[in-house]
Amino acid sequence: MIKKLMNYIGEFKKDTILTPVFIILEAIMEVLIPVLMASIIDHGVKPGNMKHVILIGLTMLLVSFLSLGFGAIAGKTAATASTGFARNIRKAMFYNIQNYSFSNIDKYSTAGLVTRLTTDVTNVQNSYQMIIRMFVRAPFMLVSAMVMCLMINARLSLIFLVALVFLGTSLFFIMSNAHPNFKRAFRKYDDLNGSVQENLTGIRVVKAYVREDHEVSKFQKASQAVYENFVKAERLIVLNNPIMQFSMYATMIALSWLGAKMIVVDNMTTGELMSLFMYVTNILVSLMLISMVFIMVTMSKSSAERIVEILDETSDITSKEGAITTVKDGSIEFDHVNFSYNKNKDNFNLTDIDIKIKSGETIGILGGTGSAKSSLVQLIPRLYDVVEGSVRVGGVDVRDYDIEALRNEVAMVLQKNVLFSGTIKENLRWGNPDATDEELIMACMQAQADEFIQTFPDGYDTYIEQGGTNVSGGQKQRLCIARALLKNPKILILDDSTSAVDTKTDAYIRQAFKEAIPHTTKLIIAQRISSIQDADRIIVLNDGKIDGFGTHEQLLAKNAIYQDVYNSQTKGADFDEANEQGA
Asked: For every residue of 494-530, which 3-state class applies, written as one string?
């Protein structure tokens, strides 16, 4: 895990190396100060030698300024190294997530990924900065101070060894018991962020159903779970401070008592005892810093594990070596395809799908909720891979294509329409970054979007809020269709993408498809038979299996499911018409 993360230090290795160098120089200056202080007391104040006091005093002032300067430089390089390290980790995580297949993404919640990219990376960043600063400074200062103490009085220095053993044992106990609690706490963080995200995304529904109290209660439960786990961990962590204080004061009392006796019998000078007091403070402060580093490392260990989990996750859909980069045409063939999201061969979502679609055909897809209509079309651009059988586009198995080349030839308007914050033009150019304004307008005219865009004060420069909240559902659908048309794809897939537009607009869109993209294969998932009855052929899905495949007339004559849907929709239309005439 550590080796994996260290790869992301990258261009910040220089700052990472310079930080310990300047930290050590700072520590050396601080180690010299007690020696100089002892010299002032023993050779300046005691004999009344003011010249010696002034000379050593000026030397101490110079050493102090040098220590300050080295510390400032170390702080700057440490900040640069740690923030750069965090930036590289976030960049690598985000890049890796972009390469995930749908099945990879399904393993993680959105909130969990956001927490790892933010809170977890920040924890690792703080830990890294403490390691290259405190974890270098504290041991160096500890060893240096101990050496100086041994040189001044070896017998008194044994007091520090007792304190070290006590503190080391205590620190090990705290770390080993706090880590599991931090690990659970960060998992609960995911749940908390998930609750917040879900609430903000669906805030209109929450208000419409007056469910604010329910959402507040749900948030409080998630927040309470985070609180309880952090409290358990912090109860152990806070033991560090009283243990450290106890060790410090106990050591000072023992040092004062034994040191005073040694001064009386002339085994030690006053200056030496003063310097020992300063060194004992350095030693105990160093121990406190080490304990703080270990505590931070304990906390960030859980975060590091979660980060590495994202970095180690590899997409289960990749382009093979020497992959084909050209899609000949829009013909599609499902060859005895079986598919399951969890690769479970005992429970397929799609079973024995065996159909051939000619390039340029318009294919309607009809089926009830859960009949796997979306699953079927998502296999074409290889958003998921089949478990058994194969899917061919342009006569080639989709697994033999370069993924980017394949998906560039397949435009898909998903069931959940997504617009990004930015202008209408910027959103449309997701389909074709180089599209001219004239091409944008033409695509919008074909998608029946130009008319409502022209009513906006800023027209095509109208700013779309995050998620497209300032346009209606039907407008959003038409913008997404225009965006797909700009790709000029060989295959166009509409996954129930005209459900929010009226039947008249729907008919205009379908007519535009015939005239503007006659050679593009069009797959249209719809709930309304009127949206697909003029298709070349229609697929009827039932529970992941093909129940019928033919023209509108053929299915109306032979397929029971199609007949039921047609009759229910026709009777409903007749009933509405009769009501209108009666009114």
From this structure: EECCCCCCCHHHHHHHHHHHHHHCCCCEEEEECCCHH
- Give bridge partners of residue 521 from the DSSP assignment: 491
Rounded to the nearest 10°, the torsion over CA 319, 324, 325, 326 is -140
Phi-psi region of 467 (alpha: psi -120 to 50; beta: other; left: phi over 0): left
Between CA 550 and CA 536 the distance in angstroms is: 8
User: E strands along 340-481, which residues?
Assistant: 350-357, 362-367, 388-393, 396-397, 410-413, 422-423, 463-464
SS3 226: helix
Amino acid sitting at position 455:
T
Residue type, 273: L
Q: Beta strand pairing status for 362-367 and 463-464?
A: unpaired
- Return d(Cα 4, Cα 10) in angstroms, integer: 12
Helix-strand-coil split of the chain, %, nearest 5 = 65, 10, 25
Which residues, in sequence order, are bridge partners of residue 396?
393
DSSP 8-state assignment for residue 462: P
Contact 353, 334 (CB under 8 A): yes
What is the pTM assigned to this prediction?
0.70
DSSP state at residue 222: H
pLDDT digit string (tens) for the chain, length 583 residues = 778 888 888 899 999 999 999 989 988 888 888 778 878 887 777 777 888 888 888 998 998 899 899 989 999 999 999 999 999 999 999 999 888 887 888 788 777 888 888 888 998 998 898 888 888 888 888 788 777 777 777 777 677 777 777 877 877 777 777 767 777 777 777 777 777 777 766 776 777 777 788 888 888 888 888 788 778 777 777 777 787 778 777 777 877 777 777 766 666 676 677 777 777 777 777 777 777 777 777 778 888 888 998 998 888 888 888 899 999 999 999 999 999 988 877 788 999 999 999 999 999 999 888 889 989 999 999 989 999 999 999 999 999 999 999 999 999 888 777 888 889 999 999 888 999 999 999 999 999 999 999 999 999 999 988 777 788 888 888 999 999 999 889 999 998 887 778 888 888 888 888 888 889 999 999 888 888 888 999 999 999 999 999 999 999 999 999 999 999 888 755 544 444 444 4
Residue 227, number of CB atoms within 10 A of its CB = 14
Q: Residue 407 in contact with residue 317, Cβ under 8 Å? A: no
Residue 569, both tokens: 């929709």
Which run of H or E residues covers position 541?
strand 537-542
